[in-house]
Structures are given as structure tokens and as C-alpha cells.
Amino acid sequence: MPPDPRAVLTRPAPEPEVTVAYGEHPDQIADLRRPAGEGPPQPLLIVLHGGFWRVEYDRRHTGPLAAALAALGHPVAQLEYRRTGQPGGGWPGTLTDVLAGVSALPGLAAAALPGQVAPAPPILIGHSAGGHLALYAAARAPDAVGAVLALAPVADLAEAYRLDLDAGAVAALLGGGPADVPERYAEADPRALIPSTIRTVVMHGTLDQQVPIALSRAYVATAQQAGADMHLVELPECEHFGLIDPTSTVWPKITSALRSLNEDQ
Predict the structure, then answer these.
(1) Which DSSP string do the residues of 176-211 spell out, in sequence order?
(2) CATH number for 182
(3) Which domain holds residue 22?
(4) How would residue 265 be classed by pLDDT, with cut points 50, 70 and 90?
(5) In this predicted model, what pLDDT tens digit does every residue of 224-249 receive, in sequence order?
(6) What is the pTM of this model?
């Protein structure tokens, strides 16, 4: 029997060096990881976790991913945010938390990890719902973002609502469907925020059952037609969770895309 790809969600990872707060709520925090080695300072990588924006899923399941990125020599922040199913989560708290965290974390990380964070906008790495949040932050706060690596992102909220991904996850986030709260979709849906000015690489497995690759294909095609600096990497034989698993066969492609984005900073 092949290994369960979800095993990465509960795999132990080294503890972060420090946890910092970017707000007063207990979930307005981020775990920081020190880069390995003695290389020059690098831009901060901000990891935005998935879980369809629900409170049942938090930043800890990205521990293996974050630890592997730090081992490559990057300072890493695992951003937490308020989620649906808890006070303040959903509209608009989930979204405003991410914007606040992305804005504050480079300075907080530079203070907590002196000499190890380059004075450059951060690179956002978002998976699934976190991929949506990364694309959203890049579109809404472009001056605060250097580049985006979106892994199996929910890049089209209206279509995700129509497909009823994760049994109503988008409706729980925004408080209804596109016909109910159209202004919220106009504000939060990456498909409605094209074109973004931020260099973006979208990576998606062709076997993804949680977030269909068709969402990324349509989103990137529309963005490219609008002149955005965006590229889609399709990963044959990859499902949803291999993208955040450093032991997966696609991990070298993830690190290659990140290296390309970092070199362009």
C-alpha cells in the first residue's frame, strides 16, 4: 500500500526558534525559523498554511515544509491567522490578519533574527487556502510582497463556491455565495483581482482531488492574457499534499521555483 500523502500534516518537525505576535489576538502570531548555514541574509519566506480557512487546521502542519526551507538557508515565518469557526475568523478577519502579518513580519523577523533577514519584501509561499491568501495579499498589498509561490491555490473563489469545495468552505469564509455577497468576492477573489503586478509561480498537481487543477489553469491563463508576470507549473502524478512534503518526488521542483523567484529579488 502506498504511503498516505496526508501523513505530512502530522509529521513531527523541529520547534521554531521564536514565536512573535503581529496583533493582540492569540492567533495573530508567527513562528520564526533561523536559516541554516553562514550565507548572506536572504528575504524572509512567509508560509501561509491551508486547511480551507477552517480553525481545525493551523500553522503546525507546515512544520516539515518550514524546517526544510530553513535548512536551505532561508529565514522562515509560519504565519497564523484567525480562521472560520472561531471569533473574528472569516470575513473580514482572516483577510485583514494576513495583510497585517505580511506587512509586519519582515521587521519582526529582522529584530528576532539579527543579521539573517535581507531588507527586501518577503516571498509568500501559500498552500491550498493559504495559496489563495498569498495571491490575495500580493494583489491587495503589492508594495509589501516580493514574489509569490502558490501551491495548489484556491485561485478562484466563485468557482470553488460553485464546486462546493470542502463542503461550503468558501461560503463559510465570505458569508455566502457570489450572488449573496458580491462585494466580498470582488474584494477577496484572486480571479477578480487580475492582473497582479507581483511575479508569481503557481504549482499544481494533476491528481489533486482537494483543489482541482482547472482552477489554476484558468486563473493563470487569464492573468497572462492581462499581462501578469505569472507562470503555471503542472506536476504530473502529484496530488494535493506532496507540494508541502519535503520527502516527495516533486520537492526539487518546488525548491527550483523558489530559487528562481529569490534570484529575481
Answers:
(1) S-TTT-HHHHHHH-GGGGPPP-S-EEEEEETT-SSS
(2) 3.40.50.1820
(3) 5-263
(4) low
(5) 999 999 999 999 999 999 999 999 99
(6) 0.98
